[in-house]
Amino acid sequence: MDDLWLIGIGTGSPAHVTLEGLQALRDAAVILVPQKGEGKDTLAALRYGIIEASGAQAEVRSFDYPVRDPALPYGQRVIKWHDEIARRWIAAIQSAPPGPVALLVWGDPALYDSTLRIAERIVPRPRLRVVPGITAIQALTAAHAIPLNTLNGPVKITTGRQLRDHGWPEGEETVVVMLDAECSFQGLDPEGLQIWWGAYLGSEAQALEAGSLAEVGGRIVERRAKLRARHGWIMDTYLLRRL
């Protein structure tokens, strides 16, 4: 693997892929597609649809995505998981035709995605090319037609785990929360907080909620559970703002 291209594909709409991303797919020799298991076939289908729409002639190879070991401490669990993903990349490209290997990365490879860290495990290290993609944050603010920041205001981007462990970040006005499978906003004092939530952003299944956290928080929890049961998976994010 001399050249590894990480192509951001946005959050579910084929229209999110940039012209640069489409050309990279057409120029790749091999494209790797992860298979994430039962109930998540839609995720692979979205990638295959993007590849087909691009007109790519590359050899497409799939690999089974490993699962994290819940018995291990969080840090160790993630390290072992990343190690195994790297091994499966290498196994998937054995006897592949020469040329760049491309991976379609949900959202943007630079934002709360581990693909770049996994690539560091490959020896010898391939030449990396990153094609930026639309992030979940951009898709969220566009779907709600709101600005990300207040006038000259800062923005804190964090995770559900951080919000659960540490609560509302001190001194912050706008907080974007990603990777939150537990609706961690439930642990906050809702007084004065507004929330803009979105799932399956940019796709036909897009779901949105907005309002005061006190009024819509419970509705988001209930709706999220129903959507996950219906689709077998969910990707969502939300923005909180203190008014």
UniProtKB/TrEMBL annotation:
Gene3D superfamilies: Cobalt-precorrin-4 Transmethylase, Domain 1 (3.40.1010.10), Methyltransferase, Cobalt-precorrin-4 Transmethylase, Domain 2 (3.30.950.10)
Gene Ontology MF terms: precorrin-6A synthase (deacetylating) activity
Pathway(s) the chain acts in: Cofactor biosynthesis; adenosylcobalamin biosynthesis
Listed EC numbers: 2.1.1.152
Top-rank taxon, per record: Bacteria
Keywords: Cobalamin biosynthesis, Methyltransferase, S-adenosyl-L-methionine, Transferase
Tetrapyrrole methylase domain span: 4-216
Enzyme's top EC category: transferase
Record flagged with keyword Oxidoreductase: no
Keyword Transferase: yes
One of the Pfam families matching this protein, by short name: TP_methylase
GO biological process annotation, one example: cobalamin biosynthetic process
Catalytic activity: precorrin-5 + S-adenosyl-L-methionine + H2O = precorrin-6A + acetate + S-adenosyl-L-homocysteine + 2 H(+)
NCBIfam families: CobF (TIGR02434)
Protein name: Precorrin-6A synthase [deacetylating]
